[in-house]
Amino acid sequence: MTDSTPTSTKPYLIRAIHEWCSDNGLTPYLAVSVNDQVQVPKEHVRNGEIVLNVGMLATDKLQISNDTITFQARFSGRVHQIMVPIENVVAIYAKETGNGMAFELPQPVAEAGTHLQAVEEAESASEPTDSAPPETPSKPPSGGRPRLTRVK
């Protein structure tokens, strides 16, 4: 036996939830964080993310390997070759129920330091100057497109 790092569980969990959705007549959706390595139609990317229908009726030649998810799909009537690195998958869930799994995204070392500095600056800038009570969170707007959020 070699001393190598074990394979990530993420692609196995993605395949399992995809199969579970298909077996139960549900539509599997992938939430993807888009960067230069992700091949999707850029005009459909919103806030650096895209949600993809990866159901059998919506895709052709779907392959979920340990490194990438590839398939062909139609966007605005045109066929596109889609390629998503596994590490860019934020979540896989059933469209109809929202049941599924969300994943942590690895943060590059250079960005981690920048992010930490930005957080520290934001915290120091947001220190209260008076004793006003904290704002109560407002109710999210009803209607519109459902959105999967990660809760920590």
Question: What are the key terms here?
Answer:
152 residues; SH3 type barrels; alpha+beta
Topology overview:
Layout: H1 10-23, E1 28-33, E2 49-53, E3 60-64, E4 68-75, E5 78-85, E6 89-94, E7 100-102, H2 109-125
Antiparallel strand pairs: 1-2, 1-6, 3-4, 4-5, 6-7
User: Could you report the average pLDDT, rounded to the nearest whole number?
Assistant: 81
The H-level CATH homologous superfamily, spelled out, is SspB-like
Please state how the strands of the largest beta sheet are arranged side by side: 2-1-6-7
Q: Which overall shape is indicated by the principal axes computed on the Cα atoms?
A: globular
Q: Specify the helix fraction band.
A: 10-25%
Low-confidence stretches: 109-140
Q: What's the structural domain tally?
A: 1
- Tell me the major beta sheet: 4 strands, antiparallel
Alpha-carbon distance between the termini? 36 Å
Number of E-type strands: 7
- Strand content of the residues, in percent? 25-35%
